[in-house]
Amino acid sequence: MEKRTSTIWKLNSTADEIVSYLSDKFCVFAQGEKKYTDKEKKDYGLPQQFEKSDLLDILNIRYALSLQAYQKYLSVTVAKDVSDETVVAIMENQYDISGVDIKQDTIRVYEGGEACSSILGYTGTISSEELKERDDSKLTINSIVGKSGMEQYLDQVLQGRDGKKEVYVDNTGRTTQDLGVIQQPRAGKDVYLSIDVELQKKTYEALERKIADILVQHLINTKTFDKKGVDDTTEIKIPIYDDVGVKTINSFAPISMAP
Asked: CB burial class (10 A; 0-12, 13-18, 19+) of residue 126?
């Protein structure tokens, strides 16, 4: 019963309570009941006080690492889009920071931006439900598949085959023996669409202006709006009374006057 109450307390905790709980769990400010001394903070390069954003980043990393505490051969991504200086610093000091490595990855770039996003869709890691439903021997729990739009509709055409490489690693994930490639990767097929990108962009911009125009017409610079006496929902206004609201109204005003 005591354990059950503890679980309910965690589910109903505030953000500050969760941060405090995780900080204690991962020994951010103290080791048990013993707080870190000024000398220890200086020796390990710890600040006297963490900014909230820095503390959240630390807790995110420590939590991700804790989920794989007994599977040290699995890597955890702690940062993306790092600078060249960071890459150099890590590569030069790999001997002293065992288990930390830099890996290059590819990203998908879509022509047309937001204007074509609803058509092209996007990709993501396959879910367990999708993996079971598709029952494809080429797919694994780490496979990237189409999630919406043409990416999803033409996924089996675009989907290639992953390569395989056999290696031996130690308990920190470091490669101790490379047995080489046992299966070469194979790219998927190319698909050409008949979308007029420029027309799509112009249509998207016109629709965006129209929606912004409708929004501006319903914004009013006041604290409250009484909708009890309004029968027509199109007459309902959106009250905004702060600096941000005033700036929003002013920034949208030229759009409402656009032809």
From this structure: buried
Name the CA dihedral angle for 49, 54, 57, 59, rounded to a multiple of 10 degrees.
10
pLDDT tens, residue order, the chain (259 aa) = 334 444 444 567 788 888 888 888 888 888 777 888 888 888 888 888 888 888 888 888 888 888 777 676 677 888 888 899 999 998 888 888 877 888 887 778 888 888 998 899 989 888 888 888 887 878 888 888 999 999 999 998 998 888 888 888 777 667 788 888 788 888 889 999 998 999 999 999 999 999 888 888 777 777 776 777 777 777 777 777 655 555 554 554 444 434 4
Structure pTM? 0.54
